[in-house]
């Protein structure tokens, strides 16, 4: 598949200063060397607990702030070092849907203006009636009634507002949509509707999606590949089927073991994580997960495990030879 987005060794460190005018006393290692790619028409998910750096990756790709190091390429062309003017034509190709549909829409704008704004900003309409036609078509695509065009965001439900956000992201003809916890604030049944909508739009338009979420149960329903992040790094990356059936990294296994299942009495190997995620200001030595890993051994505290191939199109950053499921089975 043709690669649309490529991210190479991306880092984002936020300086901590002593007072307003003070020097830098420490750095938050929010993202610390992340590499992955997204093909045209593909969904790649970034998953992990709150604070793992997954949203920072999305925002660095969008250039909401400059990366500390690393490169971002679209269609093979580097974009992280472009000036704002050079970046502008590319911005329409990468759009975002944020988590909170209540605060990401201007409450004083009518839906027609919210969806039409990016079309105007990128000069993509030839006349007022053409703009109205485009907005109406986008409302059809996200399954909102056309006669709602003159209403304000507060007149819609949470799910409908997220549909407006998706229409706005589609408006300039995006190839890649970054969905940053885009369904997290919604009720379960509404989540499913939005996930299905995104899936249908991907099939119809060939969209690539970078789906950022802490919710593995949702990710399982729409992703092609999954990158699991912990404390600023990707610790496992593979296709959906492999991740959900043969996770190699203990952190992934712990996340999966916490996903609710329909039958709570069904036998499963729960991996309970203790303690909090360590501070990204001073990450642990060796494997960053060693302070919480139930399988930790001496080498883990000293030597940082690189991402290594553990199966076809499957990489994991762990010193263990075997997946946690096999380790538990051997020990039983
Ligand atoms: Fe656990 Fe060690 Fe693997 Fe890190 S390297 S995940 S501490 S077993």
Verbal overview:
- The mean pLDDT is 92.
- The protein is α/β, with parallel strands linked by helices and 332 residues long.
- An 8-stranded mixed beta sheet has the order 6-7-8-3-9-10-12-11, with helices on both faces.
- It has 2 domains: 3-93 and 175-331, 3-Layer(aba) Sandwich (Rossmann fold); 110-172, no CATH class.
- Helix 3 packs parallel to helix 5, helix 4 (128-141) packs across helix 5 (158-170) and helix 5 (158-170) packs parallel to helix 6 (188-205).
- Helices cover 32% and strands 24% of the residues.
- The protein is built from 11 helices and 12 strands.
- It is globular.
- Bound molecules: iron/sulfur cluster.
Chart the SSEs and their pairings.
Blueprint: E1 3-17, E2 24-39, E3 43-47, H1 54-61, E4 69-74, E5 77-78, H2 84-91, E6 94-97, H3 111-121, H4 128-141, H5 158-170, E7 176-180, H6 188-205, E8 208-213, H7 216-222, E9 225-230, E10 233-239, H8 240-246, H9 250-257, H10 298-302, E11 308-311, E12 314-316, H11 324-331
Parallel strand pairs: 3-8, 3-9, 6-7, 7-8
Antiparallel strand pairs: 1-2, 1-4, 4-5, 9-10, 10-12, 11-12
Supply the number of helical segments. Answer: 11
Give a quick account of the main beta sheet: strands, pairing sense, barrel closure. 8 strands, mixed
The count of strands amounts to: 12
Q: Please list the strands of the largest sheet in the order they lie side by side.
A: 6-7-8-3-9-10-12-11
Secondary-structure element order, N to C = EEEHEEHEHHHEHEHEEHHHEEH
Task: Output the CATH homologous superfamily of the largest domain.
Answer: P-loop containing nucleotide triphosphate hydrolases
For the record, the CATH class of the largest domain is Alpha Beta
Which ligands are bound?
iron/sulfur cluster
Write the CATH fold name of the largest domain: Rossmann fold
Helix/strand structural class: alpha/beta
Helix content: 25-40%
- What are the segments in which pLDDT stays under 50 over at least 5 consecutive residues? none
Name the CATH architecture of the largest domain.
3-Layer(aba) Sandwich
What is the approximate shape?
globular
* Percentage of residues in DSSP E strands: 15-25%
